[in-house]
Design a protein that fits this description.
This protein has three helices and four strands; from the N terminus they run βααβββα. The protein is α+β, with helices and mostly antiparallel strands. The strands form two sheets. A two-stranded parallel sheet has the order 1-2. A hairpin with a 7-residue loop joins strand 3 and strand 4. It starts with a strand and ends with a helix.
Amino acid sequence: MRIDIITIFPEVIEALCGYSIIKRARDKELVTVNAVNLRDYTLDKHKQVDDYTYGGGAGMILKPEPLFRAVDNLSSPT
């Protein structure tokens, strides 16, 4: 089984996969976990993945473009 996780914190995912059931499954080669850094799919030099809300007010939202590029890359045949 292949599990792809798109995140801005791939180091955290890799660290968490070193424990418990996931670690045992990886050791037996039953599962592969791929932590994909969303920032690798941005086009700006600052690797920004969030933006301000459209309606104003407090908070931030995730830009869809980097996520679309990451999903397209993961779903393309290798």
